[in-house]
Amino acid sequence: MKNNRSDFPIFSHSISRKPLYYCDNASTTHKPQQMLDALYAFYATYNSNVHRGVHAFGETTTEHYEHARTSVANFINADSSEIIFTSGCTESINAVATSWGRTVLRPGDEVVVSQLEHHSNFLPWQQLIHTNGIVLRSIPVLPDGTLDMAVAHSLITSKTKLLAITHVSNAIGTHVDLMPLITQAHAVGARVLVDVAQSIAHQRIDVQALDADFLAFSGHKLCGPTGIGVLFIKKELHEVMPPYKYGGGMVFEVGQVDATWLQAPQKFEAGTPPIAQAIGLGAAITYLLEHINFDELQQYEARLCARLIDGLHELQGVRILGPLDALKKNGHLVSFVLDRIHAHDVAAYLGQRNIVVRAGHHCAQPLAQALGYDASVRASFYFYNTIEDVDALLEALRELIQAI
Ligand SMILES: Cc1ncc(COP(=O)(O)O)c(C=O)c1O
User: Fold this and answer.
1) What is the pTM of this model?
2) Which of 22, 144, 310, 403 is the most exposed place for a label (fewest CB within 10 A)?
3) DSSP string, 118-170
């Protein structure tokens, strides 16, 4: 697979001019020149606010902003009105919990999550225990890091009002078999939110095929800028959901004590939106569609994971987390723990060699508790990674383990 590294200025500006072994794509991805050019063009040539000025600049900006929305909608097979721009995946999920959750959920209603969730798809629902009296159920993980599907099916009942589930675990890379869970949730009349923060950059996502009611992700994990997120809300839910924030750009009419709202998406986008970031995200999606074959990408990343897993098996005192056979087929990240060296020390040592990995609980403490580790080292790949990245990582680990 072509790695397209020459499109990414960061690889020619790496720290101290040393090669950069960037293996932290699950945190954030690098940015291609084409996306940076789109940001520059906005600020340098037509910068203005959206949906307001009737001057030509405002119209151009609005056109680009709405074009970005259409690009996102086409990318996930949604309608443009179903795409809400937020500041990130975290805000997208919080928006659903605040607007839909607080309005619709009653004491005793159940929300089902899983032990794989990133905190941003756990804490907003946990808060509803206190505000709405909901009951939060969590699908447990098995020791191999997959979900216990038998328990999952028993947790989704007529009391379930929402299944809020990750597609791919950011901490250990597990892919969740979504369809059986979504089908069952819908059969009992529940809504479904899918957190695709970790899958959207690595495989094609189709909201209609998934039949998700809500879908959330961040732009910065797919070559877009920070500060932009996407919330897909199925059209049939637009009416029942009140705005989750209030201000300019979203009102139809304002009276002394009440107001009426524009239709979605404006209803959910109070204030000046992240204009440059949305345009940047649109450009990033165009870049990916023009340069990346997603089927090849998944196989390529899985090969990098397989090489890393096989290499880690040869080292002393390394525990690799997650479903290893599956990661070798479809993974983009590998998480592991060294017996005698704390994950933070490992990451710091690797960092000195310009090998960038992430260490910690990866904002998934319930998972770390369930699997019995407090911090892991995570290497995560994208199309611009190479076998040399994996080998540099393995070589450094070998030396570190020998030195201890
Ligand atoms: C699975 C998952 N969900 C949600 C998030 C939150 O994304 P953000 O911090 O960009 O809002 C992340 C970020 O790592 C993630 O991996």
Assistant:
1) 0.97
2) 403
3) -GGGTHHHHHHHHHH--EEEEEPBPTTS-B-HHHHHHH--TTEEEEEEESB-T
